[in-house]
Amino acid sequence: MKPLSFHGSHIIFATNHGKVVAARTPFEKILSARVDELAVDSDSLGTFSGEVARPGSMLDALRGKIRLAQSRTESPLLLASEGSFTSADGFGLLMHGIEMLMLVDNRTGVEIIEQHLSHNTNYATATLRSPTELADFLPRIHFGSHALVLYPEGVPLVGNVHKGITEAAEAERAFHLCAALSPSQSVMAMSDMRAHLNPTRMKEIERCCERLATRLSTLCPQCGSGGFGLTGTVPGLPCVECGTPTQRARGEIHSCPFCGAAKELPRSDGKTYALASECEWCNP
Ligand SMILES: [Zn+2]
Ligand SMILES: [Zn+2]
Q1: Is residue 1 part of a domain?
Q2: Are the beta carbons of 278 and 271 closer than 8 angstroms?
Q3: Tens digits of per-residue pLDDT, 114-141?
Q4: Within 10 A of 117 (CB to CB), how many other CB atoms are there?
């Protein structure tokens, strides 16, 4: 098999939220690749604000976007992006976001997946009962440069979600409309996570694009194709006190999406021991 190279390639990014601006520079710099946008109605596959339920996993969502693109273009290289935002501590004090990218090579059907986890997010949700509570919520999401979503509590969402709000007067107007519709006079608020209205998220998508472009430029030692990179971990990092292998990862598995060649590498963070507090033996 002739090695597959992504250098100088042309990639089609299936998105309807302008994410191509996050992809162009990293792909150009790292791979001399050109990225163009194909507008697909990815909102039909699920929305952050919940009018359309999102599919099961991030991978399902990515494959859905790729399928939409495949019905519209014959281009061999398709890219899709998906983000997920949750509370990292279970209390909503610490939030984090996962950005995931999938590149599909239509010539071979191979999927190459990259992800990026970050605490740099303005993701927040709240139940608001007064304009004062609204005013307190806005700075949390960097309102103005970042957009707001409001909807009434306790009524169906379709037709009642106010998205992409960036002006204070508009926020207040939407708040009163929502409060009037809600049986409890409560308004649900959240940061608008659509990339074109969320510069913080756009920056993190760019980070993820850098990681993917770097992976695509990494050649498989066996077949010479691009895309060699992290696909899993091996548990067994030894405890610093007693040396017993722990559940923490001892190493990383890097593999080739085309020929399946794999090798175990040390952890990229350089850690060679687990804490005694992470050891089943020292801290059962
Ligand atoms: Zn290979
Ligand atoms: Zn131990």
Answers
A1: no
A2: no
A3: 999 999 999 999 999 999 999 999 999 9
A4: 14
* Residues, CB-to-ion distance under 5 Å, ligand 1: 220, 222-223, 256, 258-259, 261
Residue 266 lies in a domain: yes
Q: Ligand 1 centroid vs 259 CA: distance in angstroms?
A: 4
Can you give the residue range of the structural domain that contains 166?
Answer: 125-191
Q: Is residue 111 within 8 Å of residue 102, measured between CB atoms?
A: yes
230 C-alpha vs ligand 2 centroid, how far in Å?
A: 28
Confidence of residue 180 (pLDDT cuts 50, 70, 90): very high
Quick one: tokens of 61? 């969502």
253 CA distance to ligand 2 middle (Å): 24
| All residues with CB under 5 Å from ion ligand 2 | 239, 241-242, 244, 279, 281-282
Tokens (6 digits) for 219: 């050649």
Longest dimension (CA), the chain: 65
